[in-house]
C-alpha cells in the first residue's frame, strides 16, 4: 500500500538547467520515465509511452504517476519579487527518500557534519522549540528553532544565532525559512525507489551579490557532506516504530514527522516494524 499512496503526490524530476541538456531517463517510485522538452513544453513519459501530467513550479518540473493527484503545495515566500531564485541541481543519495527529508530537519548534526559552516563546537546545544502537526493544512511545523551558525549562508559575514521555522508540506519536501532575512532553502526529494533518491535543493534568497555558481556550489557542498551519513544509516528505510530508535529532546521534529507519515499512510521508504 505504500506505493499506492505515493503515486498521487507530485515530484520534482528536473530543474531549469537540466531540461536544457535534452532527453533524460530517470526513475520515479521504481518506474523508468523519460524527461524532455522545455519549461514551456515539458514532456514526461513512461517506458510504454504513457504521457504523465506535468507542471512547472519553483524552477522545477513536477510530475505524478497517480490518476488523482493531490494539489501541489505552495511556498508563498518563494514567489515574492526581488529574490534570487537558485535551482541547485541534483544530488543522488542511496537512502530512503524519507531519511533525506528527516536529515534536513535535524539541526543537532550541524556542528559535527557541517563543522564551521552550519555549526561548530562547543555550540552544540539545541534550545527548546515548538513542533506541531497542523491538521487544517496537514503539515508538520517546527517553530522557535534557534542555533548558532558560523556561516549560515554563502553571503554570511560571520557567526550568528539563526532563527528557523521548519515546514514539511509533503512527505518528500522540507522548507526551512530563516527568519532574519526570510531566505528559503528547500529540498525536493525524488524517490527513485524506497532506498534511493535524487535530491533537488532550491533557494530563494535576498542575496544579490554572490555569483550564481558560488551559491550552487555552497549548497551542493552542504548536501554532499550529508550524503555519507545518510548512506550509512541503518535501517535504510525510515523506521516508524518508536521502539526502533530512541529519540532525544532535539528530535522533536523527527518524531512529529514520523508520526505524521504513519497517520497519513505515507509509507514509501518507511518501515513500520523491525527489518
Q: Concise description?
A:
20% of the residues lie in helices and 34% in strands. The chain is α+β, with helices and mostly antiparallel strands. Strands 7, 8, 9, 10, 11, 12, 13, 14 and 15 form a 9-stranded antiparallel sheet that branches. Strands 1-6-5 form a 3-stranded antiparallel sheet.
Task: Provide key terms for this protein.
alpha+beta, nine-stranded antiparallel sheet, three-stranded antiparallel sheet, 20% helix
Structure report:
With 275 residues, this protein is an alpha+beta fold. The protein has a domain at 83-271: Naphthalene 1,2-dioxygenase Alpha Subunit, Chain A, domain 1, CATH 3.90.380.10. It is 20% helix and 34% strand. The chain has six helices and 17 strands. The strands form four sheets. Strands 7, 8, 9, 10, 11, 12, 13, 14 and 15 form a nine-stranded antiparallel beta sheet that branches. Strands 1-6-5 form a three-stranded antiparallel beta sheet. Strand 11 and strand 12 form a beta hairpin. The longest helix is centred in the C-terminal third of the chain and has 20 residues, at 212-231. The protein is globular. The model is unreliable at 112-116 and 150-158 (pLDDT under 50).
Amino acid at each position: 500500500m505504500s506505493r499506492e499512496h505515493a503515486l498521487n503526490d507530485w515530484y520534482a524530476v528536473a530543474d531549469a538547467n537540466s531540461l536544457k541538456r535534452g532527453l533524460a531517463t530517470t526513475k520515479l517510485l521504481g518506474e523508468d520515465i523519460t524527461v524532455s522538452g522545455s519549461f514551456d513544453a515539458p514532456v514526461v513519459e513512461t517506458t510504454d509511452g504513457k504521457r504523465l501530467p506535468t507542471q512547472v513550479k519553483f524552477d522545477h518540473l513536477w510530475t505524478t504517476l497517480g490518476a488523482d493527484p493531490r494539489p501541489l503545495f505552495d511556498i508563498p515566500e518563494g514567489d515574492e519579487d526581488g529574490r534570487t531564485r537558485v535551482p541547485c541541481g541534483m544530488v543522488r543519495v542511496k537512502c530512503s527518500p524519507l531519511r533525506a527529508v528527516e536529515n534536513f530537519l535535524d539541526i543537532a548534526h550541524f556542528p559535527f557534519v557541517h563543522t564551521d559552516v552550519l555549526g561548530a563546537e562547543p555550540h552544540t546545544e539545541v534550545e527548546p522549540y515548538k513542533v506541531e502537526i497542523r491538521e487544517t493544512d496537514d503539515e508538520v511545523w517546527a517553530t522557535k528553532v534557534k542555533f548558532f551558525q558560523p556561516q549560515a549562508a554563502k553571503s554570511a559575514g560571520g557567526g550568528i544565532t539563526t532563527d528557523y521555522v521548519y515546514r514539511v508540506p509533503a512527505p518528500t519536501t522540507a522548507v526551512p525559512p530563516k527568519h532574519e532575512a526570510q531566505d528559503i532553502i528547500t529540498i525536493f526529494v525524488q524517490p527513485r525507489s524506497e532506498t534511493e533518491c535524487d535530491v533537488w535543493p532550491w533557494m530563494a534568497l535576498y542575496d544579490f551579490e554572490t555569483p550564481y555558481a558560488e551559491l550552487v556550489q555552497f549548497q551542493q557542498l552542504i548536501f554532499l557532506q550529508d550524503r555519507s551519513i545518510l548512506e550509512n544509516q541503518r535501517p535504510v528505510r525510515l523506521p516508524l516504530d518508536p521502539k526502533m530508535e530512541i529519540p532525544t529532546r532535539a528530535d522533536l521534529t523527527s518524531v512529529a514527522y514520523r508520526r505524521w507519515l504513519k497517520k497519513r499512510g505515507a509509507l514509501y521508504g518507511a518501515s513500520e516494524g523491525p527489518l
